[in-house]
């Protein structure tokens, strides 16, 4: 981590803290997530739920994992840096967001979800804080709760922030899928119009109450499975008719209202998929001009495994705003870093004491093939793990 200088603390979560940092090799800003848990083997790191999908998913609207670094048994994820998230955008605005901007943002997010779901993953934690923005560009981030579509249930019932949690999750269903991401998007879309959460429940029961108050109470005809889930919990839905969403969201067009109501359907089977949402009349102009980037035409990202002698540490994140220097009393630790796009086969040498490890172009030095750790005298002539950002400078949101 000696190549990165911490600039600003961005936030702290259950599993780690996030910092804005500067890559001193190329003066590029990045976001560094320092994981709280210690990791003593590289295999542990690569088996993390957050790593695998980000290695597989390559999409313009999914945040790019640039590098994974393990140093002194501490784990760091290095991501591309975005300016702010949708929650911050809504909080800082004093005027409603235009529908054209909401349409653009949501169309990008649905493209990301379509890519994610079609590749066998669903996010499980869609909320404004996990949607990152730079100018007109939006990207989905934070894959800590991601699951494979075809993974075996039961799943944990605690997913997503309560206000964006789908009814089947609130009712403790142990088997659910990508439709929970679509429910969350319906709530997010509505919040973008009103700048207020659509279902601001103070508890799980109150959350269901708030949902009934907006979309009306379910019935066996509307959602038989949900009625069974509620009965199993001895829960009775409050009786409410469907509210007039156009009164709650006066700046939203009829097409926007129609899509929000479809996404916020009680039954997961009635919600449109991400692919179907992209074809909704709300996005007619965007969909007609959509050009999907094929894997063959996508920029090639070089990937390598390198054993590098780390010259400094990010152990104390509170001191990260200062230049890091090596503690002479601390034993140097030989660690590994991996760039995005690496396949599972490229991790195999790590299990056999670095035998047969090949150093890719751009790295000068020697690597020992010993059973123990062997410091490599390595020097980066060009960092093959870093791809320069294509993000344009942030435009002033309020001026759009």
TrEMBL record:
Sequence ranges assigned to domain Protein kinase in this UniProt record: 4-283
Gene3D superfamilies in alphabetical order: Phosphorylase Kinase, domain 1, Transferase(Phosphotransferase) domain 1
Family listed: Belongs to the protein kinase superfamily. CMGC Ser/Thr protein kinase family. CDC2/CDKX subfamily.
Entry binding sites for ATP: 34
GO MF annotation list: ATP binding; protein serine/threonine kinase activity
UniProt superkingdom: Eukaryota
PROSITE patterns: PROTEIN_KINASE_ATP, PROTEIN_KINASE_DOM, PROTEIN_KINASE_ST
Name under which the protein is recorded: Protein kinase domain-containing protein
Alphabetically ordered keywords of this record: ATP-binding, Kinase, Nucleotide-binding, Phosphoprotein, Serine/threonine-protein kinase, Transferase
Biological source species: Ceratopteris richardii (Triangle waterfern)
């Amino acid at each position: 981590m000696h190549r990165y200088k911490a600039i600003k603390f961005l936030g702290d979560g259950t599993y780690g803290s996030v910092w804005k940092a500067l890559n001193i090799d190329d003066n590029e800003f990045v976001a560094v997530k320092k994981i709280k848990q210690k990791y003593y083997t590289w295999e542990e790191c690569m088996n993390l739920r957050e790593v695998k999908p980000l290695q597989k998913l390559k999409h313009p609207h999914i945040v790019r994992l640039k590098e994974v670094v393990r140093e002194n048994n501490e784990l760091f994820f290095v991501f591309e840096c975005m300016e702010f998230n949708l929650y911050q955008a809504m909080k800082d605005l004093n005027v409603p967001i235009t529908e054209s901007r909401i349409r653009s943002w949501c169309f990008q997010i649905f493209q990301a979800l379509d890519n994610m779901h079609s590749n066998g993953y669903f996010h499980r934690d869609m909320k404004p804080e996990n949607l990152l923005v730079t100018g007109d560009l939006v990207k989905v981030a934070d894959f800590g709760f991601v699951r494979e579509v075809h993974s075996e249930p039961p799943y944990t019932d605690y997913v997503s922030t309560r206000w964006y949690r789908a009814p089947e999750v609130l009712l403790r269903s142990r088997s659910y899928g990508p439709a929970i991401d679509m429910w969350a998007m319906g709530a997010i879309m509505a919040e973008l119009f009103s700048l207020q959460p659509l279902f601001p429940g103070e508890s799980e029961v109150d959350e269901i109450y708030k949902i009934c108050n907006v979309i009306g109470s379910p019935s066996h005809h509307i959602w038989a499975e949900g009625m069974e889930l509620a009965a199993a919990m001895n829960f009775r839905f409050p009786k409410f008719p469907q509210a007039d969403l156009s009164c709650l969201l006066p700046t939203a067009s009829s097409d926007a209202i129609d899509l929000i109501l479809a996404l916020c359907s009680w039954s997961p089977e009635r919600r449109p998929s991400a692919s179907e949402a992209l074809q909704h009349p709300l996005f007619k102009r965007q969909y007609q001009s959509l050009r999907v980037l094929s894997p063959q035409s996508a920029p090639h990202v070089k990937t390598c495994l390198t054993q590098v002698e780390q010259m400094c540490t990010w152990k104390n994140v509170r001191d990260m705003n200062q230049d890091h220097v090596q503690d002479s009393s601390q034993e140097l630790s030989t660690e590994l870093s991996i760039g995005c796009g690496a396949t599972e086969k490229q991790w195999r040498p790590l299990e056999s004491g670095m035998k047969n490890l090949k150093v890719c172009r751009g790295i000068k030095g020697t690597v020992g093939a010993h059973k123990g750790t062997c410091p490599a005298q390595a020097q980066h002539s060009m960092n093959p793990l870093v791809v320069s950002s294509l993000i344009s400078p942030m435009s002033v949101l309020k001026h759009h």
